[in-house]
Structure prediction request, 484 residues.
Amino acid sequence: MTIKFGTDGWRAIISEEFTFKNVRKVAQAIADVTHEQYRGSPHLQPSLVVGFDTRFLSDRYAVAVAEVLAGNGIRVWLSKADAPTPMVSYAIVDKWADGGVMITASHNPPRYNGIKLKASYGGSATSATHKAVEQRIHQRDRQGLSPEIIAYDHALEAGIIERFDPLPAFRAQIQRLVDFDAIQQAGLSVAVDAMYGAGRIYLRRLLEEADCHVTELRSEMNPGFNGIHPEPIAKHLQLLAAEMSTGKYQLGLATDGDADRIGAIDPDGRFIDPHQIMALLVDYLIQERALRGSIAKTVSTTQMLNRLAEHHGLHVHETPVGFHYISDLMLQESVLLGGEESGGISIFGHIPEGDGLLMGLLLTEIVAKRRKPLGALIDELMERPYMGKFCYGRDDRAVKPFDKAELVQGLIANRPQALTGSPVAQVNNQDGVKFILTNNSWLLIRPSGTEPVLRIYAEAHSDEAVATLLEEGTVLAQRVLQRI
Prediction:
């Protein structure tokens, strides 16, 4: 069995590959790489923050990681309870730690768990670090070496492991980035769907501290997520949409399994997708906060951001899928907003990490200050002469294993002259293959980095055109797959 890190860490099925034995192997490799990178540090000893989500055995896996790290002379700050990934990531910066480990499979189905590896700046570790951890795992396997371990109780008594609450420091950071006074003055009612994930309790608390009236859905501890897929997309948020239909709320918010992603529902039950959320946020930060900076987005993210950037004279970076690419750019320059289609978004002044809690509070601030629901604000934005209407869709199709390079080569070799009747103007093979049309619509076909799934994305100027693009993309992908 080969442990391999994807776009944001290692994920595997619980009790098949994700076992205590393998978790300890990964923890030992992380400890080795931490010591290698730690050389020359002014600290007395390296330290790592360890957090965990609400999944089955996540708390016990976190203890197992902590025991191995402690056994290697690394000081461990271990979260007292399940907590969101962005909250744990911010704790790394707050405690001046050398990095962190988050036990989570994020938005994946309940049978999965995983490990996210974080760097000292609070964002995803680099690809080089992930590769170094992988290599160390395989090296130790070849040598037949076992992990070094100190029992939890002994490490706790010796002060090598220390339990802590990551909320207070995170709350202070959020209060620097969100206008709580504006929210308090609006007296909003908000429905929050925690989807049984690690955002439970925390987003509600922060909203209540801003004097919002909050109803929280699916907030109880349920390691199996009651059978749902904890990803805040339209088809998984029917319960929240039904709650919004009661007419009691101005806003509905949802976070994924580890609360690094955001989804929203309008009072009329309309799903506000991450593309629209990012466009609203960019417009708001420019108009209300007078902020400037570049925009960083993944290849599967809306052209609305390009339209806004062009109008305001901002530069747009387009990256492969994976928030660590956004994180890299946020460390290099002043990025006004960085985000991806899946709902991981961050802004200037925050850690380079997707943060569903912060985005939920910023959306609440927008509704509070502009005194309009999100849907109306989106419609007004698209009515501007330099914008236009944008619609989006995605299909995920389970596939048998295949060579990704061959898929890309096949898609390029079979490049269509036109899609939905519009000529293909450009082909981008940065991550999968993206066909960009002359009318600013696009189709992207790419394999998932963490699941045996082929993802087909499309954006166009009507829902009908999106449906046609997705259908044409499926036919094209199937034709190519049959040949490789």
Remarks:
- The chain has four domains: 10-167, 178-270+356-368, 273-354, 391-481.
- Residues 27 and 236 are 33 Å apart (CA to CA).
- The domain at 391-481 is CATH 3.30.310.50 (TATA-Binding Protein).
